[in-house]
Design brief:
Strand order of the largest sheet: 7-6-3-8-9-14-13-10-11-12
Radius of gyration: 23 Å
Mean pLDDT: 88
Oligomer: single chain
Low-confidence stretches: 10-18, 350-362
Number of strands: 14
Largest sheet: 10 strands, mixed
CATH architecture of the largest domain: 3-Layer(aba) Sandwich
Order of helices and strands: EEHEHEHHEHEHEEHEEHHHEHHEHEHEH
CATH superfamily of the largest domain: HAD superfamily/HAD-like
CATH class of the largest domain: Alpha Beta
Shape: globular
Distance between the termini: 64 Å
Number of helices: 15
CATH topology of the largest domain: Rossmann fold
Number of domains: 2
C-alpha cells in the first residue's frame, strides 16, 4: 500500500495492487522533482550496451591495473571518484543517441520505443561510484549498469536484451557475435572530425557486416571476375544476413516513427552503406537484398575498391562499422570513429591473397 496525506492530495488516499496503476503512475509523475526522463522498458527499447572503456577514456587507469594490479587500481578509483573521466571513443555516439531520444519524446511522449544505453563493464562494483559521478557530470541518461567484478559480462547481454554491444576488448566482441548479438570493437581515434550534434549518423560496410560473407568467399576463391559473374547470376537471390543487420533494422524502426510525422527530410537518424563493391557489376544484389528485408539506407555509396577514408571524412558518421582492419585504419587516419566487426572469412585471410580451393571449402 502507498499512503498519501489527505490534506495534501485529498483525492488520493490509498492504492492497492488491484487499483488502476495507470492513474497511480500519472499521480506520481505529477510529484516528480526531477525532469530526468525514465528509462524505457527493455522489451520496447533499442538497447545499446557500451563498455566503460569505450564510453570514457580510461587509458591511464588501465595502465595502472596492468602494472600494479587490481587492489591498487580499485584504490586509485576510490581516491579519484569525484574526478570525472574524460570522454571516450563511444561518447559522441551515446550523446547522439540521446539527441534522437529527445526528439522522439517530443513527438511521442508516451512511447517507450527509444534508445536505452546500458553500461556493461567487468569493473569492480566499488568503481561504480566514479562511473556514476562521471555519467551525471556529463548529463548522460544511463540508468542500467552491469558491473561484473572481473568476470566477462557477455553472458548478461541477452538478459539485458542487447541490440548492439561496443567494447575495446576484441575477444568479448567475438564472443558476443558468436552469441548472435551485434557487436564491434572500438578503437581510439586521435584526430576526430567535428560531428553533427543534431543528427545520429551511422555508416555500415556491406559484406560480412550487414550481409553474410558468402560473396567474399567467392572473391577469395576465384577472384573478381568470377565474383561479378556470380553476383549477376544470383542478383535476385537475397544475401544471407550479417551480424549488424539487426541493428540496421532497429534503426529503421525508429526512423519510421519520424517518417510517420512527415519528418523524413529532418529525421535525426541517417544511415549509410559504404561498400567497396562496384555498382554496375555487383550493386543490384545488395539493394535488392535490403528491399527484400523491408529495410533501406539513406545513402548507398559504391566505391569499386577505392579507399573509404576520404568519403567517410565527408559523411562524418558517429560510428562506422567494417569487417576489414585496413578500412578501419584508413578511416581513423582521416578522423572517423570506426568499429571493427570480427566476422567472416576476411578475419583469417588477407584481402589480396586468393584462397586455394580446399581452404575456401574448409
Amino acid at each position: 500500500y502507498i499512503l498519501v496525506k489527505p490534506e495534501e492530495h485529498p483525492t488520493f488516499t490509498l492504492f492497492s495492487e488491484e487499483n488502476d496503476w495507470a492513474a497511480a503512475k500519472a499521480f506520481f509523475d505529477s510529484l516528480k522533482t526531477t525532469t530526468k526522463p525514465r528509462p524505457p522498458k527493455p522489451k520496447n527499447a533499442v538497447t545499446i550496451a557500451v563498455s566503460s572503456r569505450t564510453l570514457f577514456n580510461m587509458v591511464k587507469e588501465r595502465k595502472l591495473y596492468e602494472e600494479e594490479g587490481l587492489e591498487r587500481y580499485v584504490s586509485y578509483q576510490l581516491e579519484h571518484e569525484d574526478q570525472p573521466f574524460t570522454p571516450g571513443v563511444a561518447f559522441p555516439f551515446v550523446k547522439a543517441l540521446m539527441v534522437v531520444n529527445a526528439r522522439l519524446r517530443e513527438l511521442y511522449p508516451d512511447s517507450e520505443e527509444l534508445f536505452d544505453i546500458v553500461l556493461m563493464t567487468n569493473n569492480h562494483a566499488q568503481v561504480g561510484v566514479r562511473l556514476i559521478n562521471s555519467i551525471n557530470h556529463y548529463g548522460l541518461s544511463i540508468e542500467r549498469f552491469c558491473m561484473t567484478g572481473g568476470e566477462s559480462p557477455i553472458g548478461y547481454l541477452k538478459a539485458y536484451m542487447t541490440n548492439l554491444y561496443l567494447s575495446k576488448d576484441s575477444q568479448k566482441v567475438q564472443q558476443a557475435i558468436e552469441e548472435g548479438i551485434a557487436a564491434a570493437t572500438m578503437f581510439t581515434c586521435d584526430n576526430e572530425n567535428k560531428l553533427s550534434d543534431t543528427q545520429l549518423r551511422v555508416a555500415f560496410d556491406g559484406d560480412a557486416v550487414l550481409f553474410s560473407d558468402e560473396s567474399e568467399i567467392i572473391v577469395k576463391k576465384h577472384g573478381l571476375d568470377t565474383f561479378f559473374q556470380h553476383e549477376k547470376e544470383f542478383e535476385n537471390k537475397p544475401l544471407a544476413q550479417g551480424p549488424l543487420k539487426c541493428f540496421l533494422e532497429a534503426l529503421g524502426k525508429l526512423q519510421r516513427k519520424f517518417y510517420a510525422k512527415n519528418l523524413r527530410i529532418t529525421c535525426p537518424i541517417r544511415t549509410y552503406l559504404v561498400t567497396a563493391r562496384s555498382a554496375a557489376s555487383a550493386g543490384a544484389r545488395v539493394l535488392k537484398t535490403l528491399r527484400s528485408w523491408g529495410l533501406e539506407v539513406d545513402e548507398a555509396l559504391f566505391l569499386a575498391g577505392a579507399p573509404k577514408g576520404p568519403l567517410l571524412q565527408k559523411i562524418r558518421p558517429h560510428i562506422f562499422f567494417d569487417d576489414q582492419m585496413f578500412h578501419i585504419e584508413g578511416a581513423q587516419e582521416l578522423g572517423t570513429i570506426a568499429a571493427h566487426v570480427p566476422y567472416g572469412i576476411g578475419q583469417k585471410y588477407h584481402k589480396s591473397k586468393p584462397l586455394k580451393p580446399k581452404e575456401a571449402e574448409k
